[in-house]
Task: structure prediction
Amino acid sequence: MAENTGKLKAAERMKIERQVMPSADASLRSHTFEEVNMGMAEQIAMLEAKRCLECKNAKCIVGCPVNVNIPGFVSRLAEGDLPGAAEILTGCNALPCVSGRVCPQEKQCEAVCIRGNKGAAVAIGYLERFVADWAMAHRNGSAAASPQPSGYKVAVVGSGPAGLTAAGELAKKGHKVTVFEALHKPGGVLVYGIPEFRLPKEIVRKEVENLERLGVEIVCNVIIGQTYTIDQLMNEMGYHAVFIANGAGLPVFMGIPGENFKGVYSANEYLTRVNLMQAYDPNAATPVLRAKQVCVIGGGNTAMDAVRVARRLGADPATLVYRRSRAEMPARAEEVHHAEEEGVTFQMLTNPVQIVGDEKGWVKGIICQKMELGEPDAKGRRRPVPIPGSEFEIPCQVVVEAIGTKANPLLTATTPDLQVNEKGYIVVDENNMTTKPGVFAGGDIVRGAATVILAMGDGKRTAAAIDSYLKTSVQLPN
Result:
């Protein structure tokens, strides 16, 4: 452990420049699925931690959807107290190794960091990853002290970020928690949606193992709404509360001509095949089409993941087609930067209007129209407006549409007393309880497609609400 070099004055902290996260060489990593960001060395992490001004009114905590005590763990790290930093971080966050890698900190905690008013904000995400990885490496397979069993049983539907976070929080309170996962591996979007080079599957596996050591049971290959219904969980299987966190994984397509050609994927299918079914292996049981030219449609993080996967599968060019300009892209700046380094081609202010195919029904290109930015839309982003007569064709053999997802109605269709809105998302109250007593919901199935960290925040808040509900509204037999 590094020595404590003492507290620095604010003026001294302000002189320290933001430290850089080292990354793998772009020319090499663009052909492999090895993790891009390589993590910080201990001394560099400590130096970055010393940039924190230790504000009395820490806006970064409010900016964090899971309310991590950021100044707490950062100050311990600055002092070289890694066990103390790890204890604070893991006490606040059930999946810190995950959020340290994929959370858009630049739009959350770092966006409100006071240090960023003059210079760059503290690299909170990098520090979170460092401390979380240290904690994982020094866990030694030991479980946290088991709380007194409460006698209550809670079912969690879905093992994505919302479900896993809620499961961990509920287990810490002594409740018996069972997580039901539709796929054959736990992790939800963490394993099927986010590529290995951003979030290694081994990291997710170890985070899941840690929850299992807390007493969380995870049952895979169970589809709630088909294998069991919500009513069966509560009335026949004895669960006192249910948390629905099955995400919003139903693909959305543009509705343009040619989407029925072979070689057209939703981003969901494309990434699931590669991430969960190991389709990057030519001998995989569930392969994916490889192509010399691939076009990915969209401008969010999922689109960025898909086009970077295509590049790694040999596409040259791997082209991102987006109808607005780079300034309007919702994808993380770091991911855009990494994609540029890896040789991804960006076709901005461009909107596909038709997919074209050959006589055998295979994709051979997309016809696009150039766009210009008009007046702002309801979200404040300037609306793309077509430029007449600007159509052109981009040759490609695979098209991936990454324009969003929506709620899958399988679960809600089998639970008629569960109210949904006009888009099929579950309606909840201020405590994330649905219209069905004892049934709660959170994450993408409530808010629509969003970020991992927002889903984790829903999971943490809902776990507290479920705990309160059980203790005040459910009477256990003597």
Remarks:
- Confidence is low (pLDDT under 50) at residues 1-5.
- The first strand starts at residue 153 and ends at 157.
